[in-house]
Amino acid sequence: MEGEPTLRLRVFDLNCWAIRYLSKRRQERVRLIGDTLRREGFDLALLQEVWSEQDYSDLRVKLAGCYPFSHYFRSGVIGSGLCVFSRFPILDTLLYQYSLNGYPYMLQHGDWFCGKSVAGIGVGITAPLLSLSLQLHAEYCREKDAYLPHRLVQAWELAQFIRHTSKAADVVLLGGDLNMHPEDVGIRLLRGWTGLRDAFAEATHFEGCKNGCTLVPDNCFTNSSELLPFPLGIRIDYILYKAISSFTVKCEELKTTMGPAPGTDIPFSDHEAVMATLHIQRQGQDVGATLGTDDPALADVVTEARTEVSVGLRAAQRQRYSSGRMAVLALLLLLLQAVAALGTLAGLGAEQPFPKLSFCLLAFLALGILILATGLHLFHTMEVKMLHGTEDQMWMALQALQKRP
Question: Where is the Endonuclease/exonuclease/phosphatase domain (predicted)?
Fold first, then answer.
């Protein structure tokens, strides 16, 4: 009803970089994050890269008094790394794992093993709130970004996920590490297709790193060499929101941490935390759902994204062909060896054409190549299908946009 008091919602978002055995001073930083959350009393805490369930359990015990509701989302080989702490009741949860998430043979990156996902929770406050915590595939190299098509597929699936799950909610809140700069096509696609608003751009008051950067050279855990083209840092962690039906949401204040946490010599993570204060208020009448497709430039964004996905599709088709050809050659080699072995057996007294050990080693090598190449062929076949399916979806969306008056 009009005139109802405004709900003041304080949100904390952080990529925790808590990888067991690999992240520096992980346990100390996790304790520091828990102490800060307990002291500051945020309403919602959206955390990413909490890869150890023991770390989550420790946080849950420490925060039980001020955050009675929490949930840890499991997916992939080592987990999604996503967890949520809330002062308000969590009514339901949903996890969606992206269909594409890097390559299993890129062991030095490891995104494929993580099962990158978007985690959704329904929170019971004054208004039904859909809160999302997520992480997209990392960029690693901006000049030669081999993962851009995968990240665009993830951004598209995320946008579709929001559009289809937000119908029962009055407010949508998204926080996470999107691994995209604000001007990148993926973030423009996500915002344009869903109508989400950027808390940094909308905030009445901002305090923190210049331009809202969340990956900065001054952070002692950041690889400064990766940020050489960006002396001020980059903004890849976001809090986005939108109101649906009869509610409005405004961002009163946005803050980022700036290096070491108060009273310590270390920051929370290699990323800076993002903290937003939102005002949620009911209006006098239902204004309808905001779908975010009224922007006349959205068709250009979808076209640009579809072009990048098409480039990735062609690359995946080439990789599928190469791995398939390798599998066929390995199979032919095995067949030739089988014929040679049968010929030797049929000749009875004939001598081996070459030593038995060498023959066996060659057979094992051919078999190993056959298994590896077949696995790669199957993986890239699935990749082609996913990229082709996303390309078709974007084409249909583009057609619908172009037919609008």
Answer: 15-271
C-alpha distances out from residue 372 to 263, 277, 360, 364, 365, Å = 52, 51, 18, 12, 11
Query: How many C-alpha atoms does 403 have within 13 Å on its Cβ side?
Result: 6
Exactly one of 150, 271, 377, 380 is catalytic; name it.
271
Dist CA 2 CA 159 (whole Å) = 31
Instruction: Answer yes or no: is 2 within a domain.
Output: no
Q: How many domains does the chain have?
A: 2
- Who's near 400: CB < 8 A, 6+ residues apart? none
Same domain membership, residue 303 and residue 254: no
In a domain, 220, yes or no: yes
Last residue in a domain, options 282, 309, 333: 282
CA 137, 140, 146: angle at the middle one, nearest 5?
Answer: 75
Q: Does pLDDT of 285 surpass 60?
A: no
pLDDT tens digits for range 79-104: 789 999 999 999 999 999 999 999 98
Residue 177 lies inside a defined structural domain of this protein: yes
Sheet holding 197-198, edge to edge: 90-97, 117-124, 128-135, 171-177, 237-243, 197-198
CATH of the domain at 12: 3.60.10.10
- Predicted model pTM: 0.90
Look up 181 and say whether it is catalytic: no
Please report where in the chains the tokens 């929490």 appear, as a residue: 70
Pairwise CA distance, residues 258 & 214, whole Å: 9
Which among 134-138, 247-251, 271-275, 360-364 has the top mean pLDDT?
271-275
Is the domain of 150 the same as that of 192? yes
